[in-house]
Design a protein that fits this description.
196 residues, 5 helices, alpha/beta, eight-stranded mixed sheet, globular, Rossmann fold, 8 strands, 30% helix
C-alpha cells in the first residue's frame, strides 16, 4: 500500500463527532436555485474541504458544483461534469477539484486517479457519485444528497460529519435562514431533521 493509501486509511477511520447532528434540507425549484444553493455554500468554503455529492442522474449535482465554483470565485464558465476525464481543476479564491466517479468500477481506481493527493492541500474537492467510492473517502466530510422530486424540484439534504464540517454547515444554515424569503426555493422550514 502506498503513502496516499496509508493516509486515506487513517483518515477514513477517524471517529465521528456527531452529537447534535443537523441535516438541513434545501428545496430548489430550478437549476438556477440549485446553483444559488451551491454558490452560498461556496462562499463559506475556506479550502481543504471534501464535499461528497450523491444523487441519481439528473438530480442536479453538476448544477450545485457550478454554484460552488461561482462562490469560490471561479471565472471559467465551463464547469461541466468531468465524467469522461474523471477530474477537472479550477482556480478561484481556493482551488476546486471537481471529480466524477460515475465510471469508477473499483476502489483501486481512486488511487490510479490520484484523488487522494488533492485531500492534503488547499483544494476544495467536490465529488459527484461519491457513494461509488465505498469506504475509501475520509469519514469527516460534508455529504450532500440530491433527490429529484419532480421535473424541476430538487430536495438537497446536507449531512456534516466531523466538527469542522458541522461548523461549516451551521454557518451555512444560519446564513441561508437569514436570506430566505427572496425566492421560492431555499432552506426548508425547521432545517434540522425535519423533511419539508
Amino acid at each position: 500500500m502506498n503513502k496516499s493509501a496509508d493516509k486515506t486509511k487513517k483518515r477514513r477511520d477517524l471517529p465521528s463527532k456527531n452529537a447534535g447532528r443537523i441535516r438541513p434540507v434545501w428545496i430548489s425549484r430550478s437549476p438556477e436555485e440549485t446553483r444559488s444553493c451551491g454558490e452560498a455554500l461556496g462562499r463559506r468554503l475556506t479550502g481543504g474541504e471534501m464535499i461528497a455529492l450523491e444523487g441519481n442522474l439528473g438530480a442536479g449535482k453538476t448544477h450545485l458544483i457550478q454554484g460552488m465554483a461561482r462562490g469560490l470565485g471561479v471565472t471559467d464558465p465551463t464547469v461541466t461534469s468531468p465524467t469522461f476525464v474523471y477530474l477537472h481543476e479550477f482556480r478561484g479564491r481556493h482551488p476546486l477539484a471537481h471529480v466524477d466517479l460515475f465510471r469508477i468500477e473499483r476502489e483501486a481506481d481512486l488511487f490510479d486517479l490520484g484523488l487522494f493527493e488533492y485531500l492534503d492541500g488547499p483544494w476544495v474537492v467536490a465529488i459527484e457519485w461519491a457513494d461509488k467510492a465505498g469506504g475509501a473517502l475520509p469519514a469527516e466530510r460534508l455529504t450532500i444528497r440530491l433527490t429529484q422530486q419532480d421535473e424541476t424540484t430538487r430536495r438537497i439534504e446536507f449531512e456534516a460529519t466531523g466538527e469542522r464540517y458541522q461548523a461549516l454547515l451551521s454557518a451555512f444554515t444560519q446564513r441561508a435562514r437569514r436570506a430566505r424569503g427572496g425566492g421560492s426555493g431555499g432552506l426548508a422550514s425547521g432545517g434540522g431533521d425535519a423533511s419539508p
